[in-house]
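Bit of a strange request maybe. I'm writing a small parser for C-alpha coordinate strings and I need a real example to test against, not something I typed by hand. Could someone generate the C-alpha coordinates for this chain?
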Amino acid sequence: MFRKNTKHSQMNLLGLFSSLSESKQKKAISSEECHFYNLIFCNIKEEIFASLYSDEKSRPNAPVNALVSALILMNRYNWTYAELFKNMEFNILTKFALGVDSMDEMPFCPATLFNFQNKLNDHFVNTGENLLEQVFDNLTEQQLKTLKIKTNIQRTDSFQAASNIRSYSRLQLLVELVIRIFQILSDEDKNKFQEQFQDYVKKTSGQFIYSLTVADIPHELEKIGKLYQWIYQNLSESYKEYDIFKTFLRVFSEHFTVVEEKVEVKDSSQLTSGCVQSPDDLDATYREKNGKKKRGQVINVVETANPENELNLITDVALKPNNTDESKILNERLDRLKEKTPDLNELHFDGAYPSSENDVKFAEHEITPVQTGVRGPKPAVELTVEQISDECYLVSCPNQQVHSSRSRKRYKACFDITVCNQCPHNKECSTVKMKTHRVFYFTHEYFQKRKRIKVIKNLPPNRQKLRSNVEATVKEFTHRMPRGKLKVRGALKAAFFAYMTAVAINFGRIYRYQKANPKGFFCFFVRICQRTFCFDENSIFTVKNESYFKFLRLPILAGAF
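Reply from user aminoacidic:
Good idea to test on real output. This should exercise your parser:
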Protein backbone atom coordinates (compact mmCIF):
# COMPACT_ATOMS: atom_id res chain seq x y z
CA MET A 1 0.00 0.00 0.00
CA PHE A 2 1.38 3.40 -0.98
CA ARG A 3 1.79 6.08 1.65
CA LYS A 4 3.66 9.38 1.40
CA ASN A 5 6.51 9.98 3.80
CA THR A 6 5.60 12.92 6.06
CA LYS A 7 7.46 11.78 9.18
CA HIS A 8 10.48 13.92 8.36
CA SER A 9 8.38 17.12 8.53
CA GLN A 10 7.73 16.58 12.26
CA MET A 11 10.54 18.03 14.36
CA ASN A 12 11.86 15.81 17.16
CA LEU A 13 12.89 18.01 20.09
CA LEU A 14 14.91 15.11 21.53
CA GLY A 15 16.27 13.97 18.18
CA LEU A 16 19.76 13.61 16.81
CA PHE A 17 20.05 17.22 15.64
CA SER A 18 18.95 18.63 19.00
CA SER A 19 21.64 16.59 20.75
CA LEU A 20 24.38 18.38 18.82
CA SER A 21 26.15 21.40 20.23
CA GLU A 22 25.22 24.80 18.83
CA SER A 23 28.46 25.07 16.86
CA LYS A 24 27.90 21.67 15.26
CA GLN A 25 24.29 22.56 14.50
CA LYS A 26 25.50 25.60 12.55
CA LYS A 27 27.96 23.42 10.62
CA ALA A 28 25.26 20.87 9.91
CA ILE A 29 22.88 23.55 8.63
CA SER A 30 25.45 24.83 6.16
CA SER A 31 26.45 21.33 5.03
CA GLU A 32 25.82 19.97 1.55
CA GLU A 33 23.66 17.19 2.98
CA CYS A 34 21.20 19.56 4.67
CA HIS A 35 20.86 21.53 1.46
CA PHE A 36 20.27 18.25 -0.34
CA TYR A 37 17.44 17.52 2.09
CA ASN A 38 15.71 20.79 1.18
CA LEU A 39 16.49 20.99 -2.52
CA ILE A 40 16.04 17.34 -3.48
CA PHE A 41 14.55 15.14 -0.75
CA CYS A 42 11.66 17.45 0.11
CA ASN A 43 10.78 18.08 -3.53
CA ILE A 44 10.54 14.50 -4.84
CA LYS A 45 6.95 13.83 -5.88
CA GLU A 46 6.33 10.48 -4.22
CA GLU A 47 2.91 10.05 -5.82
CA ILE A 48 4.67 9.29 -9.12
CA PHE A 49 5.54 5.89 -7.66
CA ALA A 50 2.09 5.02 -6.28
CA SER A 51 1.44 2.61 -9.17
CA LEU A 52 4.27 0.37 -7.94
CA TYR A 53 2.28 -0.58 -4.86
CA SER A 54 -0.98 -2.36 -4.13
CA ASP A 55 -4.26 -0.43 -3.87
CA GLU A 56 -5.49 -2.76 -1.15
CA LYS A 57 -4.95 -2.11 2.53
CA SER A 58 -1.65 -3.69 3.42
CA ARG A 59 1.71 -2.97 4.95
CA PRO A 60 2.78 0.57 3.87
CA ASN A 61 5.77 1.09 1.63
CA ALA A 62 9.20 2.27 2.68
CA PRO A 63 9.61 6.06 2.19
CA VAL A 64 9.96 6.60 -1.55
CA ASN A 65 11.69 9.96 -1.23
CA ALA A 66 14.35 8.28 0.90
CA LEU A 67 14.82 5.45 -1.62
CA VAL A 68 15.19 7.80 -4.56
CA SER A 69 17.39 10.22 -2.61
CA ALA A 70 19.67 7.34 -1.62
CA LEU A 71 20.16 6.45 -5.29
CA ILE A 72 21.01 10.08 -6.05
CA LEU A 73 23.51 10.29 -3.18
CA MET A 74 25.03 7.00 -4.27
CA ASN A 75 25.73 8.43 -7.72
CA ARG A 76 26.80 11.84 -6.42
CA TYR A 77 29.51 10.40 -4.18
CA ASN A 78 30.24 7.40 -6.39
CA TRP A 79 29.45 4.99 -3.55
CA THR A 80 29.00 1.25 -3.78
CA TYR A 81 25.89 -0.21 -2.15
CA ALA A 82 28.00 -1.21 0.85
CA GLU A 83 29.33 2.33 1.21
CA LEU A 84 25.81 3.74 0.87
CA PHE A 85 24.42 1.68 3.72
CA LYS A 86 27.51 2.27 5.87
CA ASN A 87 26.96 6.03 5.55
CA MET A 88 23.22 5.69 6.12
CA GLU A 89 23.91 3.85 9.37
CA PHE A 90 26.82 5.83 10.83
CA ASN A 91 27.10 9.18 9.00
CA ILE A 92 25.00 11.82 10.75
CA LEU A 93 24.91 14.14 7.73
CA THR A 94 23.76 11.33 5.43
CA LYS A 95 20.90 10.68 7.86
CA PHE A 96 19.99 14.37 7.76
CA ALA A 97 20.01 14.28 3.93
CA LEU A 98 17.47 11.43 4.05
CA GLY A 99 15.21 13.11 6.61
CA VAL A 100 16.26 10.88 9.52
CA ASP A 101 16.76 12.46 12.96
CA SER A 102 17.70 9.38 14.96
CA MET A 103 20.99 7.52 15.18
CA ASP A 104 19.25 4.15 15.49
CA GLU A 105 16.78 4.66 12.65
CA MET A 106 17.28 3.36 9.10
CA PRO A 107 14.69 4.43 6.49
CA PHE A 108 14.98 1.07 4.68
CA CYS A 109 17.13 -2.04 4.47
CA PRO A 110 19.24 -3.22 1.50
CA ALA A 111 16.61 -5.72 0.34
CA THR A 112 14.02 -2.93 0.17
CA LEU A 113 16.23 -0.83 -2.09
CA PHE A 114 16.91 -3.76 -4.43
CA ASN A 115 13.21 -4.67 -4.53
CA PHE A 116 12.38 -1.04 -5.31
CA GLN A 117 14.73 -1.10 -8.29
CA ASN A 118 13.17 -4.37 -9.45
CA LYS A 119 9.75 -2.71 -9.26
CA LEU A 120 11.05 0.17 -11.39
CA ASN A 121 12.40 -2.34 -13.88
CA ASP A 122 9.11 -4.27 -14.07
CA HIS A 123 7.16 -1.04 -14.45
CA PHE A 124 9.39 0.02 -17.34
CA VAL A 125 9.04 -3.35 -19.06
CA ASN A 126 5.24 -3.29 -18.71
CA THR A 127 4.60 0.37 -19.52
CA GLY A 128 7.75 1.77 -21.16
CA GLU A 129 7.71 4.50 -18.50
CA ASN A 130 10.91 5.33 -16.60
CA LEU A 131 9.81 6.83 -13.29
CA LEU A 132 13.29 8.09 -12.42
CA GLU A 133 13.22 10.14 -15.61
CA GLN A 134 10.08 11.81 -14.28
CA VAL A 135 11.89 12.59 -11.03
CA PHE A 136 14.67 14.29 -12.99
CA ASP A 137 12.20 16.22 -15.18
CA ASN A 138 10.10 17.40 -12.21
CA LEU A 139 13.07 18.55 -10.15
CA THR A 140 14.70 20.28 -13.11
CA GLU A 141 11.49 22.05 -14.13
CA GLN A 142 11.12 23.42 -10.61
CA GLN A 143 14.76 24.47 -10.37
CA LEU A 144 14.76 26.23 -13.75
CA LYS A 145 11.62 28.15 -12.86
CA THR A 146 12.65 29.12 -9.36
CA LEU A 147 16.18 30.18 -10.28
CA LYS A 148 14.88 31.96 -13.41
CA ILE A 149 17.44 30.26 -15.62
CA LYS A 150 17.08 31.18 -19.28
CA THR A 151 16.56 28.10 -21.46
CA ASN A 152 16.37 29.75 -24.89
CA ILE A 153 19.99 28.79 -25.69
CA GLN A 154 21.16 25.23 -25.02
CA ARG A 155 23.96 22.87 -26.02
CA THR A 156 24.26 19.11 -26.35
CA ASP A 157 26.85 16.36 -26.48
CA SER A 158 27.07 12.61 -25.99
CA PHE A 159 29.53 10.12 -24.53
CA GLN A 160 30.07 6.39 -24.59
CA ALA A 161 28.94 4.51 -21.47
CA ALA A 162 30.59 1.11 -21.70
CA SER A 163 28.88 -1.74 -19.90
CA ASN A 164 30.65 -3.49 -17.03
CA ILE A 165 31.19 -6.66 -19.06
CA ARG A 166 34.08 -8.74 -20.26
CA SER A 167 35.26 -8.16 -23.81
CA TYR A 168 34.68 -11.47 -25.60
CA SER A 169 36.10 -12.54 -28.93
CA ARG A 170 33.64 -14.26 -31.26
CA LEU A 171 34.73 -17.80 -30.45
CA GLN A 172 35.08 -17.10 -26.75
CA LEU A 173 31.50 -15.82 -26.62
CA LEU A 174 30.25 -18.99 -28.32
CA VAL A 175 32.20 -21.17 -25.88
CA GLU A 176 30.92 -19.16 -22.90
CA LEU A 177 27.33 -19.82 -23.96
CA VAL A 178 28.03 -23.57 -24.21
CA ILE A 179 29.49 -23.57 -20.68
CA ARG A 180 26.49 -21.72 -19.28
CA ILE A 181 24.04 -24.01 -21.04
CA PHE A 182 25.78 -26.99 -19.46
CA GLN A 183 25.48 -25.35 -16.02
CA ILE A 184 21.67 -25.22 -16.19
CA LEU A 185 21.29 -28.87 -17.18
CA SER A 186 19.90 -31.28 -14.65
CA ASP A 187 22.34 -33.74 -13.07
CA GLU A 188 20.79 -36.48 -15.14
CA ASP A 189 21.31 -34.56 -18.39
CA LYS A 190 24.85 -33.59 -17.42
CA ASN A 191 25.77 -37.23 -17.10
CA LYS A 192 23.82 -38.18 -20.19
CA PHE A 193 25.35 -35.50 -22.46
CA GLN A 194 28.84 -35.34 -20.95
CA GLU A 195 30.40 -36.48 -24.21
CA GLN A 196 28.92 -33.61 -26.26
CA PHE A 197 30.12 -30.90 -23.83
CA GLN A 198 33.38 -32.35 -22.53
CA ASP A 199 35.68 -30.38 -24.86
CA TYR A 200 34.38 -27.05 -23.52
CA VAL A 201 33.40 -27.43 -19.87
CA LYS A 202 36.75 -28.57 -18.47
CA LYS A 203 38.16 -25.02 -18.72
CA THR A 204 36.90 -21.48 -18.69
CA SER A 205 36.18 -19.85 -22.04
CA GLY A 206 39.31 -17.74 -21.64
CA GLN A 207 41.50 -20.77 -20.98
CA PHE A 208 39.98 -22.53 -23.97
CA ILE A 209 40.83 -19.62 -26.30
CA TYR A 210 44.32 -19.21 -24.87
CA SER A 211 45.34 -22.69 -26.01
CA LEU A 212 44.40 -22.06 -29.67
CA THR A 213 46.39 -20.63 -32.56
CA VAL A 214 44.94 -18.28 -35.17
CA ALA A 215 44.87 -21.16 -37.67
CA ASP A 216 42.71 -23.24 -35.30
CA ILE A 217 39.87 -20.73 -35.07
CA PRO A 218 38.02 -21.46 -38.38
CA HIS A 219 37.96 -25.19 -37.57
CA GLU A 220 36.76 -24.53 -34.01
CA LEU A 221 33.98 -22.27 -35.27
CA GLU A 222 32.70 -25.05 -37.53
CA LYS A 223 32.98 -27.58 -34.71
CA ILE A 224 31.11 -25.47 -32.18
CA GLY A 225 28.48 -24.64 -34.83
CA LYS A 226 27.61 -28.35 -35.02
CA LEU A 227 27.32 -28.46 -31.24
CA TYR A 228 25.00 -25.42 -31.31
CA GLN A 229 22.77 -27.19 -33.81
CA TRP A 230 22.74 -30.32 -31.64
CA ILE A 231 21.82 -28.29 -28.53
CA TYR A 232 19.03 -26.58 -30.46
CA GLN A 233 17.61 -29.89 -31.70
CA ASN A 234 17.91 -31.86 -28.45
CA LEU A 235 17.57 -29.43 -25.54
CA SER A 236 15.19 -26.71 -26.73
CA GLU A 237 12.04 -28.40 -25.51
CA SER A 238 13.33 -28.95 -21.97
CA TYR A 239 15.19 -25.66 -21.39
CA LYS A 240 13.54 -23.09 -23.65
CA GLU A 241 12.11 -21.12 -20.69
CA TYR A 242 15.53 -20.42 -19.20
CA ASP A 243 16.87 -16.92 -19.86
CA ILE A 244 20.32 -18.19 -20.77
CA PHE A 245 18.79 -20.60 -23.30
CA LYS A 246 16.89 -17.71 -24.89
CA THR A 247 20.22 -15.91 -25.17
CA PHE A 248 21.71 -19.05 -26.71
CA LEU A 249 18.98 -19.11 -29.37
CA ARG A 250 19.64 -15.49 -30.23
CA VAL A 251 23.40 -16.07 -30.54
CA PHE A 252 22.78 -19.19 -32.64
CA SER A 253 20.72 -17.19 -35.14
CA GLU A 254 23.26 -14.35 -35.21
CA HIS A 255 26.36 -16.45 -35.88
CA PHE A 256 25.10 -19.45 -37.86
CA THR A 257 22.75 -20.37 -40.67
CA VAL A 258 21.25 -23.77 -41.38
CA VAL A 259 21.12 -24.73 -45.06
CA GLU A 260 19.52 -28.10 -45.87
CA GLU A 261 20.01 -29.22 -42.25
CA LYS A 262 23.71 -28.34 -42.40
CA VAL A 263 24.99 -25.60 -40.12
CA GLU A 264 27.22 -22.95 -41.67
CA VAL A 265 29.26 -20.25 -39.94
CA LYS A 266 28.35 -16.72 -40.98
CA ASP A 267 31.15 -14.57 -42.27
CA SER A 268 32.28 -11.92 -39.78
CA SER A 269 31.12 -9.22 -42.23
CA GLN A 270 27.54 -10.44 -41.73
CA LEU A 271 27.63 -9.78 -37.98
CA THR A 272 26.04 -6.49 -36.97
CA SER A 273 26.99 -4.15 -34.15
CA GLY A 274 23.73 -5.11 -32.45
CA CYS A 275 24.79 -8.75 -31.95
CA VAL A 276 25.08 -10.07 -28.40
CA GLN A 277 28.34 -8.78 -26.91
CA SER A 278 28.07 -10.63 -23.62
CA PRO A 279 25.55 -13.00 -21.99
CA ASP A 280 25.67 -10.67 -18.97
CA ASP A 281 24.31 -7.64 -20.84
CA LEU A 282 22.01 -8.29 -23.78
CA ASP A 283 21.40 -4.56 -24.27
CA ALA A 284 25.05 -3.75 -24.97
CA THR A 285 25.95 -2.98 -28.58
CA TYR A 286 29.31 -2.50 -30.29
CA ARG A 287 30.80 0.70 -31.62
CA GLU A 288 34.26 1.82 -32.64
CA LYS A 289 34.78 5.56 -32.34
CA ASN A 290 38.03 7.51 -32.54
CA GLY A 291 39.91 4.21 -32.68
CA LYS A 292 38.38 2.96 -29.40
CA LYS A 293 36.16 -0.11 -29.18
CA LYS A 294 33.20 0.20 -26.84
CA ARG A 295 30.43 -2.20 -25.84
CA GLY A 296 27.46 -0.65 -24.08
CA GLN A 297 25.26 2.42 -24.45
CA VAL A 298 25.57 6.09 -25.34
CA ILE A 299 24.27 8.88 -23.09
CA ASN A 300 23.21 12.20 -24.57
CA VAL A 301 22.90 15.32 -22.40
CA VAL A 302 21.46 18.77 -23.07
CA GLU A 303 22.03 21.78 -20.82
CA THR A 304 21.25 25.48 -20.76
CA ALA A 305 23.93 27.75 -22.22
CA ASN A 306 22.72 31.36 -22.23
CA PRO A 307 25.73 33.60 -21.42
CA GLU A 308 23.51 35.66 -19.11
CA ASN A 309 22.87 32.69 -16.79
CA GLU A 310 24.89 32.65 -13.60
CA LEU A 311 24.64 28.86 -13.57
CA ASN A 312 23.45 26.30 -16.11
CA LEU A 313 21.51 23.11 -15.50
CA ILE A 314 21.07 19.87 -17.42
CA THR A 315 17.62 19.86 -19.02
CA ASP A 316 17.50 16.53 -20.86
CA VAL A 317 19.14 13.12 -20.65
CA ALA A 318 18.70 10.25 -23.11
CA LEU A 319 20.22 6.76 -23.23
CA LYS A 320 20.43 4.70 -26.43
CA PRO A 321 22.39 1.71 -27.76
CA ASN A 322 25.88 2.96 -28.57
CA ASN A 323 25.50 2.09 -32.26
CA THR A 324 22.84 4.80 -32.56
CA ASP A 325 23.98 7.86 -34.50
CA GLU A 326 23.91 11.13 -32.56
CA SER A 327 21.78 12.77 -35.27
CA LYS A 328 19.09 10.14 -34.73
CA ILE A 329 19.20 10.60 -30.95
CA LEU A 330 18.72 14.35 -31.36
CA ASN A 331 15.89 13.82 -33.82
CA GLU A 332 14.05 11.63 -31.30
CA ARG A 333 14.59 14.07 -28.42
CA LEU A 334 13.83 17.43 -30.09
CA ASP A 335 10.06 17.21 -29.59
CA ARG A 336 10.48 16.32 -25.92
CA LEU A 337 13.15 18.99 -25.42
CA LYS A 338 10.93 21.67 -26.93
CA GLU A 339 8.04 20.50 -24.75
CA LYS A 340 10.13 20.83 -21.57
CA THR A 341 11.70 24.17 -22.54
CA PRO A 342 9.24 25.91 -24.91
CA ASP A 343 11.39 29.03 -25.31
CA LEU A 344 14.32 27.08 -26.80
CA ASN A 345 15.36 28.84 -30.00
CA GLU A 346 19.09 28.11 -30.36
CA LEU A 347 20.85 24.76 -29.99
CA HIS A 348 24.64 24.27 -30.17
CA PHE A 349 26.18 20.92 -31.17
CA ASP A 350 29.16 19.41 -32.96
CA GLY A 351 29.44 17.79 -36.39
CA ALA A 352 27.94 14.44 -35.31
CA TYR A 353 24.38 15.78 -34.92
CA PRO A 354 23.28 17.43 -38.20
CA SER A 355 20.99 15.68 -40.69
CA SER A 356 18.36 16.68 -43.20
CA GLU A 357 15.67 15.20 -40.92
CA ASN A 358 16.90 17.35 -38.05
CA ASP A 359 16.86 20.46 -40.26
CA VAL A 360 13.16 19.84 -40.83
CA LYS A 361 12.50 19.59 -37.10
CA PHE A 362 14.58 22.67 -36.36
CA ALA A 363 12.43 24.64 -38.80
CA GLU A 364 9.25 23.12 -37.35
CA HIS A 365 10.17 24.14 -33.79
CA GLU A 366 11.76 27.46 -34.84
CA ILE A 367 15.13 26.45 -33.40
CA THR A 368 18.34 27.88 -34.86
CA PRO A 369 20.92 25.07 -35.14
CA VAL A 370 24.51 26.11 -34.42
CA GLN A 371 27.11 23.62 -35.58
CA THR A 372 30.70 23.95 -34.35
CA GLY A 373 32.27 21.13 -36.35
CA VAL A 374 31.82 20.34 -40.04
CA ARG A 375 32.15 16.81 -41.39
CA GLY A 376 34.03 16.32 -44.64
CA PRO A 377 36.68 18.37 -46.48
CA LYS A 378 36.27 22.11 -46.96
CA PRO A 379 35.56 23.02 -50.63
CA ALA A 380 38.37 24.85 -52.45
CA VAL A 381 35.88 27.29 -54.00
CA GLU A 382 33.05 28.53 -51.80
CA LEU A 383 29.65 28.51 -53.52
CA THR A 384 26.85 30.29 -51.67
CA VAL A 385 23.20 29.33 -52.11
CA GLU A 386 20.28 31.61 -51.21
CA GLN A 387 16.66 30.54 -51.47
CA ILE A 388 14.54 32.90 -53.58
CA SER A 389 11.37 30.78 -53.61
CA ASP A 390 10.33 27.16 -53.13
CA GLU A 391 11.62 26.33 -56.62
CA CYS A 392 14.42 28.81 -57.18
CA TYR A 393 17.81 29.51 -55.60
CA LEU A 394 20.45 32.14 -56.23
CA VAL A 395 23.89 30.50 -56.52
CA SER A 396 27.05 32.62 -56.31
CA CYS A 397 30.75 31.97 -56.79
CA PRO A 398 33.54 34.55 -56.46
CA ASN A 399 32.99 35.69 -60.08
CA GLN A 400 29.37 34.90 -61.06
CA GLN A 401 25.81 34.83 -59.77
CA VAL A 402 23.09 32.72 -61.43
CA HIS A 403 19.60 31.43 -60.74
CA SER A 404 19.01 27.70 -60.43
CA SER A 405 16.61 25.57 -62.43
CA ARG A 406 14.91 22.31 -61.47
CA SER A 407 16.21 19.01 -62.82
CA ARG A 408 14.52 15.65 -62.36
CA LYS A 409 15.84 14.90 -58.85
CA ARG A 410 17.69 18.06 -57.83
CA TYR A 411 18.54 21.65 -58.71
CA LYS A 412 21.26 22.89 -61.03
CA ALA A 413 23.01 26.22 -61.56
CA CYS A 414 24.68 26.82 -64.95
CA PHE A 415 27.70 29.15 -64.97
CA ASP A 416 29.15 30.87 -68.03
CA ILE A 417 32.11 28.74 -69.10
CA THR A 418 34.01 31.67 -70.62
CA VAL A 419 34.10 33.36 -67.22
CA CYS A 420 35.00 30.08 -65.52
CA ASN A 421 37.93 29.51 -67.89
CA GLN A 422 39.50 32.76 -66.73
CA CYS A 423 39.04 31.91 -63.05
CA PRO A 424 42.28 30.93 -61.26
CA HIS A 425 40.31 28.33 -59.23
CA ASN A 426 38.66 26.52 -62.14
CA LYS A 427 40.67 23.34 -61.58
CA GLU A 428 39.61 23.07 -57.93
CA CYS A 429 36.00 24.13 -58.52
CA SER A 430 33.29 21.64 -57.51
CA THR A 431 31.17 22.45 -60.57
CA VAL A 432 30.94 19.93 -63.44
CA LYS A 433 32.44 21.03 -66.76
CA MET A 434 30.17 20.77 -69.80
CA LYS A 435 30.66 21.91 -73.42
CA THR A 436 29.02 25.33 -73.08
CA HIS A 437 28.88 25.89 -69.31
CA ARG A 438 29.83 24.57 -65.89
CA VAL A 439 27.06 23.08 -63.77
CA PHE A 440 26.65 22.93 -60.02
CA TYR A 441 24.14 20.32 -58.80
CA PHE A 442 22.62 20.57 -55.32
CA THR A 443 19.56 19.67 -53.26
CA HIS A 444 17.47 21.51 -50.69
CA GLU A 445 19.24 19.44 -48.03
CA TYR A 446 22.56 20.84 -49.23
CA PHE A 447 21.15 24.37 -48.93
CA GLN A 448 20.02 23.63 -45.35
CA LYS A 449 23.44 22.25 -44.50
CA ARG A 450 25.31 25.30 -45.83
CA LYS A 451 22.85 27.60 -44.10
CA ARG A 452 23.42 25.79 -40.80
CA ILE A 453 27.19 25.99 -41.12
CA LYS A 454 27.09 29.76 -41.69
CA VAL A 455 24.91 30.51 -38.67
CA ILE A 456 27.83 30.47 -36.25
CA LYS A 457 29.66 33.17 -38.24
CA ASN A 458 26.77 35.59 -37.69
CA LEU A 459 26.62 35.09 -33.92
CA PRO A 460 28.19 37.51 -31.42
CA PRO A 461 31.68 36.37 -30.31
CA ASN A 462 30.44 35.37 -26.83
CA ARG A 463 28.02 32.86 -28.40
CA GLN A 464 30.29 31.26 -30.98
CA LYS A 465 32.06 28.94 -28.54
CA LEU A 466 29.24 28.04 -26.17
CA ARG A 467 29.24 24.37 -27.11
CA SER A 468 32.73 23.62 -25.79
CA ASN A 469 31.71 23.95 -22.12
CA VAL A 470 29.38 20.97 -22.42
CA GLU A 471 32.56 18.85 -22.36
CA ALA A 472 32.87 19.71 -18.67
CA THR A 473 29.39 18.31 -18.09
CA VAL A 474 30.37 15.11 -19.88
CA LYS A 475 33.40 14.90 -17.59
CA GLU A 476 31.12 15.12 -14.54
CA PHE A 477 29.46 11.92 -15.76
CA THR A 478 32.51 10.03 -16.98
CA HIS A 479 34.67 10.57 -13.88
CA ARG A 480 32.15 8.31 -12.13
CA MET A 481 32.93 5.56 -14.67
CA PRO A 482 36.27 3.81 -13.91
CA ARG A 483 38.13 3.15 -17.19
CA GLY A 484 35.11 4.46 -19.08
CA LYS A 485 32.86 1.65 -17.82
CA LEU A 486 29.66 1.86 -15.84
CA LYS A 487 29.46 -0.09 -12.61
CA VAL A 488 26.23 -1.69 -13.81
CA ARG A 489 24.98 -3.79 -16.72
CA GLY A 490 21.87 -3.45 -18.82
CA ALA A 491 20.19 -0.48 -20.48
CA LEU A 492 17.72 0.23 -17.68
CA LYS A 493 20.35 0.32 -14.93
CA ALA A 494 22.47 2.52 -17.19
CA ALA A 495 19.45 4.83 -17.51
CA PHE A 496 19.09 4.89 -13.71
CA PHE A 497 22.74 5.98 -13.52
CA ALA A 498 22.20 8.69 -16.15
CA TYR A 499 19.12 10.27 -14.56
CA MET A 500 20.25 10.07 -10.94
CA THR A 501 23.69 11.43 -11.84
CA ALA A 502 22.07 14.31 -13.75
CA VAL A 503 20.02 15.19 -10.65
CA ALA A 504 23.18 15.03 -8.54
CA ILE A 505 25.13 17.24 -10.96
CA ASN A 506 22.37 19.86 -11.05
CA PHE A 507 22.18 19.81 -7.26
CA GLY A 508 25.95 20.27 -7.00
CA ARG A 509 25.82 23.31 -9.26
CA ILE A 510 22.98 24.87 -7.29
CA TYR A 511 24.74 24.18 -3.98
CA ARG A 512 28.00 25.76 -5.16
CA TYR A 513 26.08 28.75 -6.49
CA GLN A 514 24.30 29.07 -3.17
CA LYS A 515 27.56 29.00 -1.23
CA ALA A 516 28.91 31.78 -3.44
CA ASN A 517 25.68 33.83 -3.22
CA PRO A 518 24.21 33.12 0.26
CA LYS A 519 22.04 36.24 0.54
CA GLY A 520 20.49 36.12 -2.88
CA PHE A 521 19.81 32.44 -2.52
CA PHE A 522 17.62 32.70 0.55
CA CYS A 523 14.63 33.63 -1.59
CA PHE A 524 15.07 30.36 -3.48
CA PHE A 525 14.44 28.35 -0.32
CA VAL A 526 11.40 30.41 0.58
CA ARG A 527 9.81 30.06 -2.86
CA ILE A 528 10.62 26.42 -3.40
CA CYS A 529 9.15 25.37 -0.08
CA GLN A 530 6.17 27.72 -0.22
CA ARG A 531 6.37 28.62 3.45
CA THR A 532 7.03 31.89 5.35
CA PHE A 533 10.40 32.19 7.07
CA CYS A 534 12.72 34.79 8.45
CA PHE A 535 16.49 34.89 8.61
CA ASP A 536 18.17 35.83 11.90
CA GLU A 537 21.55 37.35 12.61
CA ASN A 538 23.17 33.94 13.21
CA SER A 539 22.18 32.55 9.81
CA ILE A 540 19.55 30.30 11.41
CA PHE A 541 16.10 29.93 9.85
CA THR A 542 13.14 30.48 12.19
CA VAL A 543 9.44 30.01 11.63
CA LYS A 544 7.14 33.04 11.84
CA ASN A 545 3.82 32.94 13.65
CA GLU A 546 4.32 29.51 15.17
CA SER A 547 3.88 29.78 18.94
CA TYR A 548 5.26 26.31 19.53
CA PHE A 549 8.63 27.42 18.14
CA LYS A 550 8.39 30.96 19.47
CA PHE A 551 11.74 30.90 21.22
CA LEU A 552 13.33 28.06 19.27
CA ARG A 553 15.72 28.69 16.41
CA LEU A 554 14.70 26.09 13.86
CA PRO A 555 17.33 24.75 11.45
CA ILE A 556 16.59 23.80 7.88
CA LEU A 557 16.89 20.12 8.70
CA ALA A 558 14.18 20.07 11.32
CA GLY A 559 11.34 19.99 8.85
CA ALA A 560 10.69 23.71 8.55
CA PHE A 561 10.60 23.29 4.81
